[in-house]
Amino acid sequence: MSDSNTPKGTPEAEPSSKxxxxxxxxxxxxxxxxxxxxxxxxxxMLAVAFGLIAALTFVLSEPRxxxxxxxxxxxxxxxxxxxxxxxxxxxxxxxxxxxxxxAEADEEAxxxxxxxxxxxxxxxxxxEEEEAAYTELVSxxxxxxxxxxxxxxxxxxxxxxxxxxxxxSQETFGLILTETSSRMLILTETYLVKDTExxxxxxxxxxxxxxxxxxxxxxxGLAVVGISLEEMTEGDLSYVEPVxxxxxxxxxxxxxxxxxxxxxxxxPSVAWGIISYINTAQQGIDMNFxxxxxxxxxxxxxxxxxxxxxxxxxxxxxxxxxxxDTGNMLAAxxxxxxxxxxxxxxxxxxxxxxGVQVQVVTASxxxxxxxxxxxxxxxxxxxxxxxxxGLQNGDILVGIGEETITTLSGLQEVxxxxxxxxxxTVIVMRSSRSGDDPQTCHETQGER
Length: 448
Hints:
Elements: H1 33-69, H2 86-97, H3 100-125, H4 128-145, E1 149-159, E2 165-179, E3 183-189, H5 190-193, E4 198-202, E5 208-217, E6 222-228, H6 234-239, E7 256-262, E8 269-284, E9 287-297, E10 303-307, E11 313-317, E12 329-334, H7 335-346, E13 352-353, E14 356-361, H8 363-369, E15 374-380, H9 385-389, E16 396-400, E17 403-404, H10 408-415, E18 423-432, E19 435-444, E20 446-447
Antiparallel strand pairs: 1-2, 1-4, 2-3, 3-6, 4-5, 5-6, 7-8, 7-10, 8-9, 9-12, 10-11, 11-12, 13-20, 14-15, 15-16, 16-17, 16-18, 18-19
């Protein structure tokens, strides 16, 4: 019997046996092969869906991307075939080696031949039938070349003395040169497109487009503007036809030529005649070229082209070099001599300029006159790079940098390696009491 005084809840009152909690271990169930296959199939489906979405996005966005990047594409370089005077130079060398008596005989025979040709030409010109044939030929040629010629107009806002605004416009001739991947290139006059706000080009079929300046050379007066091909209609693209630049080195006095563009002072106009003579050593700035003089009476402000009877351009009309005794007879720069300049302007390349007019001191002339071989400076353009560097008339240019200069083509090749504003070392020989002394000048190249 238990003691009645023992309190409840004491150890003596509890059972002696102990209870333990149940412990369980949860093991992760391994996925079956079927579930792994499901997962792989799901991943493959997601990959295919992602690829389809990416392809669809690229297809839809490609035209827009091309449009955005179109302006960043690099234009292909424009190149024109060059002509050579090698045959003429070889002939001159052979003539120089001939005897004095042989030269006199050749001169007399040449004189008789020229007289016969002139007499025959004059008698032909007097023939009404021949005159009509020439007129028809010129008309057909002008019609055929209409696709290659354009009118270039500059439009600029100005103010009169009363400060009232008005629009001033000028127009001149333009020649379609070639077509690139993005624009149509047109050769025209620098004075018209320089510092102008708007340039408009009117095709031979009267279609009009705005144009932008590609490049220009103020020394030769050549400029190139471009029309965006995207703006031109398919009809106009099929209508225009780039012109063919011919070989003017094979032109001779007496050849028939046609003046097209602006020979009479307004665009378009046409005239024709013959080549009176060719000045083979016309001095220009940093260049010499052939000047083709014609018997065509034109405007004192004439521009345009001379074309031979094959429809090829052989001259770019300019009145800058016409002599006073020829009146308003049209003259043109030989196209073969300026092809390199046209090419560089078409590519928008800046050209360094020395600013001199020179004559070549050949090896034979140098030996005969006891002069250094190089380029005799007959004139330094006022304000030009050579003038500012202290070069003088009478100096003989013999080198630029580390390059030796003996020919005009050599001078042009060296200048092409420099950028306008770049400083170069120019070496000239200057006459003094002690003889020809070398002078070294450092000059900053100007821009043509």
